[in-house]
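To: structure desk
From: M.T.
Subject: fold request, one chain
Message: Could you run this one when you get a chance? Sequence is below, nothing fancy, just the single chain.
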Amino acid sequence: MSVVICTTALVLAGSAFVSYYVVAERRSITRGLGVQAETIGLESVSALAFNDDRAANETLAGLRADRNVVAAAIYAADGTRFASYESLASGAPALASTAERDIPDRIQFERRTARANHAIVVNGRRVGSVHIVYSLDDVRADLARFLLITVGVLAVSVIGALLVARRAQRALSGPIAHLAAAALAVSRSNDYRVRVESNHAVGELGMLIDTFNQMLSQIQARDHELDAAAHRYQALNEQLERRVTERTAELQVINKELEAFTYSVSHDLRAPLRRIDGFSGMLAGKYGPQLTGEGTHFLSRIREGTQHMGRLIDDLLNLARLGRKEVSQRATDLSAIVQRIRDGLSREAEGRVVRWTCGPLPIVDCDPALIDVVLTNLLSNAVKYTRPRAEAVIEVGAIEKPGAPPIIFIRDNGVGFSMKYVDKLFGAFQRLHRADEFEGTGIGLATVQRIIHKHNGRIWVDAELDKGATFYFTVAAGTVALEPINEGAVPV
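Reply: Done. Structure tokens follow.
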């Protein structure tokens, strides 16, 4: 590369010198021929005026002093040759016998000669012209010698540049080549143990090699740290997986034991509760008239407690069965489920005015039995908590969003609740209203949340105290269609 650069620079410099020499010679010849032609023209004025051709030939004979002038001629005003001169050198070009009358002043360069034309003018009148032929052989010879010298200097310079480049290659290019080879080897094999020998390199090159070796050392150290960290991470991961497996097995055993315990306790509690309820009923029927008012009240409280306990056991059993139940999904018409539940709630809302506003609901892939439980709980709660209203308004509908499952909502104008207690809403046995105001076991919404989670959906609520509540839920399934439901007020 160094040789190519030096050679290119020298060739350009030589070409510039040669071009300058040629231009300078042409200018010098142009000036010389112009002066000679003008001088001969001035000296030939009188000879042309008196038609003295001998004097004109003597004037031209003075051109012998310049050996490069090979021919010259003076032409009269009519273009005829008046006087001429030819060098003794062989090969002198023949001069024309006549010349153009109005030929302009000019110097014309040809391959081997230069021709000068000069008009002889006296008092603004053209009386003749001078024509000189100048040989370029000496100029061509000088140019050849100059080119030979230039080529010689160029050759010597290139050889010198080559020697200097070889020495520089050993001092500079060699270490750089080793550095490039080491970088290539590292990139291909990821072996950071490779090092580059500096070979006493100094300056920026030595600093570059030392920096490269330090970088490899740092990467190697970090690589070792990463390997050690990866081994530690793998060991921790394996240990964590073992712990997760053990805890999962323990939780499965605990869940099974808890389900078995719940199922067993529930069954074991049913028998004594039935006996208490049965005997208290017989007591009220057979000996009720003999009891005082306070005794009758106590007996009714006993029966209410046993019946509440029975419902609570039933809800616990349903919640326990829900953990073991597999979700069986199929296309389910939510509109039909809501219509059926709404018809079933008419007895519970007897004596009230309930205005149902039901929009179109989708057909989704879900377990119809479980979703029936969800909608039954939410709709029965809406009917229950709107009991203090003169006209209950319950709205059921769906919200469609592109690329997302539909959102089903149940909205009512009931008593509502404060959102600061929303975290307790879906917990088992959690109640936000007193039992003497609104009956219930506190298991319903916990069951609803578990069913929604088994469908990979979510449930949430938006409420305000004494202004109603809106429950939202989704199931992770696509919408098949939207089915409308009959709307209107239902006085029952």
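Reply (cont.): The chain has a mean pLDDT of 79. Let me know if you need anything else for the meeting.
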